[in-house]
Amino acid sequence: MNNERYKRGLAKLEEIDGQAGEHVIASLKDIAPDFATLLIEFPFGDIYSRPGLDLKVRELAVVAALTALGNAAPQLKVHLHGARNVGCSRQEIVEVIMQMAVYAGFPAALNGLFAAKEVFAQEDTMASPTT
Amino acid sequence: MNNERYKRGLAKLEEIDGQAGEHVIASLKDIAPDFATLLIEFPFGDIYSRPGLDLKVRELAVVAALTALGNAAPQLKVHLHGARNVGCSRQEIVEVIMQMAVYAGFPAALNGLFAAKEVFAQEDTMASPTT
Amino acid sequence: MNNERYKRGLAKLEEIDGQAGEHVIASLKDIAPDFATLLIEFPFGDIYSRPGLDLKVRELAVVAALTALGNAAPQLKVHLHGARNVGCSRQEIVEVIMQMAVYAGFPAALNGLFAAKEVFAQEDTMASPTT
Amino acid sequence: MNNERYKRGLAKLEEIDGQAGEHVIASLKDIAPDFATLLIEFPFGDIYSRPGLDLKVRELAVVAALTALGNAAPQLKVHLHGARNVGCSRQEIVEVIMQMAVYAGFPAALNGLFAAKEVFAQEDTMASPTT
Amino acid sequence: MNNERYKRGLAKLEEIDGQAGEHVIASLKDIAPDFATLLIEFPFGDIYSRPGLDLKVRELAVVAALTALGNAAPQLKVHLHGARNVGCSRQEIVEVIMQMAVYAGFPAALNGLFAAKEVFAQEDTMASPTT
Amino acid sequence: MNNERYKRGLAKLEEIDGQAGEHVIASLKDIAPDFATLLIEFPFGDIYSRPGLDLKVRELAVVAALTALGNAAPQLKVHLHGARNVGCSRQEIVEVIMQMAVYAGFPAALNGLFAAKEVFAQEDTMASPTT
């Protein structure tokens, strides 16, 4: 057991992904609980916890990569929330996605923008008073 | 003719890619000269010239995307030089590439790191006195 | 402002994509209005407006590429409509998609065929009298 | 007409994919009936019928590849059922998908695991008595 | 044995790919001779031999798809020769590749153009008198 | 520091990849030494060390995935050696690669077969007496 990496990873996952991260972990419980542990330990405990690169830039890099790959829509949405959680502005996020038109084509950029539109709308709904 | 976009794009291309950019443009002259014009006008004149995102972050986003896609080695190298030209540290570049192991797998990250190793070595060769 | 490219692009977008194109442009208005402009100017104003290749062949080439990439279902459907709009027969479209089994595998071709099935059914619905 | 390949392929398709295979074939009837024939003859009549590799390993290899590519969710689900039909354990399937985190990234592996979760749940529903 | 498909495929392979096709078949002899047979029978005997789509358009569709995928440079070159063999003009080929910048990004289009440049140069060398 | 995972991973890396694995680790020393550690710990210490799936099947799954992705030739070759090291027959390897023609297209399968041809030839060279 590697408690230190796990604790560091869990804290980082919560910092970045908030409830969306917890939801992913919970959804793995009955199919591959060990994968939830590995997901906390390696990406979050090992990679995101490294110094040398700002969390905002890390999240914008993920948004860039997942927009370009275009085959992981749920994870792109999680990281669009994550980018917002760590302080990226909507403009920064939109600019990164638009730029992907150059490197992965217009369809990839369009699908990234539509994902951002959905995430920003959720954010507005959460932020607005319910009464 | 759209001289303003072309001039703005050419200046931006030189700022980011330096001689590597000029080399790409020159190599298109006999196969598709119009594509050289479009490459200057759209990616560099339209996209890279937009406000709202730091050039350093733009280059790190490209390094992330091309590392993740893993099918455009020559352009990844051009942008590794570009990232250095606009002020990214070697550590920032290496961190972005390492992070891609999480989103596109270890082979993609390894090939990105080996490209960076080659680009940094070229940089060292250029920087060192020849006598 | 580059009115000539924009006007040429908008006319070409309407020629190829009809209402589907207008829908894409409208859906970008609140998330990235500049991207709608760039989408009209570069792909449609610059690329599709070029001589030297028949619009029918251009659309079949897009159907081939998006079927092979397999990660841009909404845009594939827009261009399946587009291919029909510029005069491609259903048989030509189906043949191009089937051929992608050779270059990108049977799953990519199957998903392309199912997209075509959906688009052709919409076309039949639109064409049939409602009374 | 090549009856032998077709018959061999149809038998193999039923052995591997059961009803899911028949459903794919049926769904091609009105869009591309020839493609249904080719799908039975080449993948199932030519490839899966070859000696030299166990059907269980063939199905795990497909699960690996479609998880890694990440752009063919319906076919991944068909082959998750197929892997079960030819005798792969749930553990073997989950291990192959988890391993893809190393080669295609965590999002690809997560989406593969969620597909397996869905397929295993369907399997449980089918297996349980309805009264 | 399926002599008719094989003969039809071999004739089609020679019509499209000429010596490059024979070279691919020969290079498979010691690693996977059966795959050479399957390659002749399915892509060339079954797919390329179908009516309903012009061979020129078939080759331009392959050029589009392989340029967009960006991970099969040797096969792209074979089909650039193939496109020329069946009568596509250099301009048509270049236009299809340029168009891929819209659907798969500028790096994919650039690498496609550089492949075309190489193929056209080989063509010029072959065509010029050797004395 | 996590000595147990590292030791377990290093032993597994040597079991699977032999000298090729050591070469990869050594080549990372001056560009990203931490990545060498992560590569030993996560893929080899965490994933390959798991029970529930035979090492032979794990290697065939990697060969399938990297052949299908088609964008990581050096890593495919390392794992073709790895598959042989853990006991896969040449026939099993060739069958897995041929099968990828169905899921990722003939170019991907061809490039996989040519990589196998190269790896098997190196193997023959190593095995033959030098005097």
Automatic annotation (TrEMBL), chains A, B, C, D, E, F:
<dbReference type="InterPro" id="IPR029032">
    <property type="entry name" value="AhpD-like"/>
</dbReference>
<dbReference type="InterPro" id="IPR003779">
    <property type="entry name" value="CMD-like"/>
</dbReference>
<dbReference type="Pfam" id="PF02627">
    <property type="entry name" value="CMD"/>
</dbReference>
<dbReference type="InterPro" id="IPR052512">
    <property type="entry name" value="4CMD/NDH-1_regulator"/>
</dbReference>
<dbReference type="GO" id="GO:0051920">
    <property type="term" value="F:peroxiredoxin activity"/>
</dbReference>
<feature type="domain" description="Carboxymuconolactone decarboxylase-like">
    <location>
        <begin position="33"/>
        <end position="118"/>
    </location>
</feature>
<protein>
    <submittedName>
        <fullName>Carboxymuconolactone decarboxylase family protein</fullName>
    </submittedName>
</protein>
